[in-house]
Structures are given as C-alpha cells and as structure tokens.
Specification:
Elements (H helix, E strand, L loop, with lengths): L2 H9 L6 H12 L5 H14 L3 H12 L15 E5 L7 H10 L5 E5 L9 H5 L11 H11 L1 E5 L6 H12 L6 H14 L4 E8 L8 H17 L3 E8 L7 E2 L1 H12 L5 H17 L6 H13 L2 H12 L18 E6 L4 E6 L1 H13 L13 E4 L6 E2 L4 E7 L5 H8 L2 E4 L8 E5 L1
Parallel strand pairs: 1-4, 2-3, 4-5
Antiparallel strand pairs: 5-13, 6-9, 7-11, 8-10, 8-12, 9-11
The structure holds uracil (URA) and calcium ion (CA).
The site of uracil has 5 residues, from helix 9.
C-alpha cells in the first residue's frame, strides 16, 4: 500500500477502507509516513469528510496505536464523561463524587489543561497535599473501595492522537468533525470506558460556534460509540457565558464544594445533574433519567455527595478540611472588584474573553510548560439576564500581580448591558 494512493483516494472524495486507515495510523505513529504526507491527507479529510464507518475505523486505529487501560479488576459498568471544553467548566469535579454517591464507579483519568484554566488535575492540586501520582494497583483498590479515584493520563494512551493533534494544530485542520470525534472518542475508549456521556458545548466560548455544528459533532460521536460497542449519550449545552461564577483553579474547587452541598450556581447545578443522570442510567443504577435526578438531588441534600468528595480527597493525600473551611485553599493577595457604570440587564458575556483574562492572570497555561498560579482567577457575579445597577460589582479579580490594567480592560469590554431579555437556556438537545 502506498500513502500517495490513499491521499489521492480521499482527495477525490472516496471512502477509505479499514485496512487503509489502519495502515496510515500505524505507519504515521512509527514514523514511516512523513508529516507532509499526513498533512495532505488531513487536509483532504477536512474538505471531503469521512463516513461514520471511516470515523469509527479511525477511532479504533488511534486506540490501537498505544496501550489501553485494563479496568477489568474494577467491578461495575465504567461510565466516563467528556466535555468539549468551555470557560469555568467545573462539572467533572462535581459529577465524579456526585455519581459515585449514587453507586456509579468512577475510575477517572484526567489531563492538565491548556488555555482558559487548568484541567481537572490542576484544579485538584490546589487542595494542599492532593496528588494523582498513584500506582495502578492503588487506583483499582481506591475505586473498588470509594467508587472514585483520579489518576493522571498515561503517556502511551492513544499516542497517534498526540501526533495528529500537533500536526492539525499547525496545518489548520483542527476544526474537522470526524477528526475531532475520533480524537475525543479514542481517548475515552483507550482509558477503559464501557459507556460515555458527552457534553458538547456550543456558543462564543466553545469550539463549535453554532448549534448545528455541535449537533453534527455529537451525532458523529454517538454513532462511533454505537459502532464500537460503547453506549454513548451526548447533550448539547450552551457556552455563551462562563459556567457558574468561578474561573480559576482553587476558586473552582470552592465552587464545586458549594455545589455538592446544594448551594452552587443554578447553571452549574443543572448541568451537573443533567450529565450525572445519564451516567447513572448508563451504569444501570436507575431506570430513567428522572429517577436518576431524584437520587442525585437527594444525595446532595443528605450530604452523601459531599461526603464522597471528602473521602476521595483524603484517600489521595489531600486536606479534607477544605470542605468545611475554604480558607485552607490557596488565596490570591489581591481581590479587585470591577463595578458597573450602568443600570440595566446583562445582555452579553463574552465567555472566551473572560477565560483569556483568567489565563493572563496565571490561571491557565499559554504553553504546555507554563507554570500556573492556582490561587488566581475571576469571579463573575452577574450572569446573562441579571439586573444590574450602577455601582454593582460585576467581577472580582483574584490576582497576585501588581499591574492588572490589561485584565481590567479585557473585562471592561467582555459584557454588554441593555434592556432586552436574552435566552439563557442551558441544555439545548440530547442525542442518543
Ligand atoms: N478535543 C480533543 O481531544 N480533540 C480534538 O480534536 C478537539 C478537541
Ligand atoms: Ca465555574
């Protein structure tokens, strides 16, 4: 088989066979196929697309480029969740203990973040003492005991995805639905998930700017799941504004604790319950999502959910007292309020700009090697549709820098105040 012929075939709009797809991924991963040929193929895929059959084959070829995680020593149906990424998305931190409290086993592999704020692991590391460097045996033991443990993503998980992603990043081919789908699904499958719940975000703060594209991406991933024997459910959620009130690592831990105690922001609570209910159903711990939601609400009210979170923190070396006393988390030296100069309704909140401001404060990484400041971030006090009066606090900047004039300027242009009521519906569709 020659790479040239495969490129030509895709360029002319034909379907690639599973044998051809396996050939490409295997030989690209071992270095036989050069970047320039792979780039040409990626661009052909970008323009010509892929059938569901091709994207399922690509997903499995990427899975097989590395080691897969064996979770067979963990009893029960392992349900994983993935979000396509948003600003201030604290849901994993809430969902993991919440569904574990309903009997779902959550052996979670997480990565570090790039961009707006840190990933789940960075956020957890703002808890004094908490660590994810545990052995596989400890991981299995903890999940069997507490239903929940989190471990860092291993380097040999889906290596082809790392190579492909870096190449896509510099060849303007990131934004292709079959390439995004296979990238996401391969990592979930390689990390041992039996079933997958996806939160596909749409709006100014998301990858997929339109609802139509978000639906296409979700349908493609659900279809891949079906074809490879992993039940997959996707919801489409709105990312026109940051989720919850907190953006920043320690700030989001604080917000997750509040939410697990039933005192969290409305949108973050709603999304966590919605995603969680699908996880509970997929794990056979409830018959319907309505029944699952009741269980989850009950576990928040009774304190069961926060108790699971506390046990989990302690089991991985963290100071569990942060649950009662959030002042034990890292705090920024300066808290600077930003006041409203007008009276009216919030008609726009530019999620990605607020996210970028948080990143520039040091809450997120510019490059893989950036060091992040776990204490800093932004609190958003007013959300879409909220009434504001002149002099009300719109944001609080948590900073360790002296000069934050640039951050202030970014926040000053990240919202609009008017008099029209905007649609702030959070959950737009469910795709099964
Ligand atoms: N997230 C991924 O993991 N892969 C993509 O291609 C896009 C978003
Ligand atoms: Ca948040």
């Amino acid at each position: 088989m020659r790479m040239y012929d495969v490129i030509e075939k895709k360029r002319d709009g034909f379907e690639l066979s599973t044998v051809e797809i396996n050939f490409i991924i295997e030989n690209y991963t071992n270095g036989t196929i050069p970047d320039y040929q792979m780039s040409a193929l990626l661009m052909a895929i970008y323009f010509k697309g892929m059938t569901n059959e091709e994207s399922a084959a690509l997903t499995m070829a990427i899975v097989n480029s590395g080691k897969t995680v064996d979770l067979s020593r963990i009893e029960g149906i392992k349900v994983d969740k993935h979000s396509t990424g948003g600003v201030g998305d604290t849901t994993t931190l809430i969902l993991a203990p919440l569904v574990a409290s309903a009997g779902v086993v959550v052996p979670k592999m997480s990565g570090r973040g790039l961009g707006h704020t840190g990933g789940t692991i960075d956020k957890l590391e703002s808890i004094p003492g908490f660590h994810v460097e545990i052995t596989n045996d400890q991981f299995v033991e903890l999940v069997n005991k507490n239903h929940l443990a989190i471990i860092g993503q291993s380097d040999n998980l889906a290596p082809a995805d790392k190579l492909l992603y870096s190449l896509r990043d510099v060849t303007a081919t990131v934004n292709s639905i079959p390439l995004i789908s296979s990238s996401i699904m391969s990592k979930k499958i390689a990390s041992g998930a039996d079933a997958i719940v996806l939160d596909v975000k749409t709006g100014s703060g998301a990858f997929m700017k339109t609802k139509e594209d978000a639906i296409k991406l979700a349908e493609n991933m659900v279809e891949i799941g079906k074809r490879v024997g992993k039940k997959t459910v996707a919801i489409i959620s709105n990312m026109e504004q940051p989720l919850g009130f907190a953006i920043g690592n320690a700030l989001e831990i604080k917000e997750a604790i509040k939410t697990l105690k039933g005192q969290g922001p409305k949108d973050l609570t709603e999304l966590s319950i919605e995603l969680g209910s699908h996880m509970v159903v997929l794990a056979n711990k409830a018959k319907t999502t309505a029944e699952a939601k009741e269980i989850l609400f009950e576990n928040i009210q009774s304190g069961k959910a926060i108790h699971v979170f506390q046990t989990f923190i302690k089991s991985q070396g963290g100071d569990e007292h942060i649950v009662q006393d959030s002042s034990l988390l890292p705090q920024a030296h300066n808290q600077i309020p930003i006041y409203s100069k007008e009276t009216g309704l919030i008609t726009r909140l530019i999620a990605d700009q607020i996210g970028r401001a948080a990143m520039m404060l040091g809450a997120g990484r510019q490059t893989k090697d950036s060091v992040i400041d776990l204490a800093v971030g932004i609190e958003v006090h007013k959300k879409l549709g909220d009434e504001v009066k002149k002099g009300d606090v719109l944001f609080t900047i948590h900073s360790n820098e002296k000069d934050i004039s640039q951050i202030k300027r970014m926040l000053d242009t990240s919202f609009e105040i008017g008099n029209a009521k905007v649609n702030d519906q959070l959950i737009l569709e469910t795709i099964i």
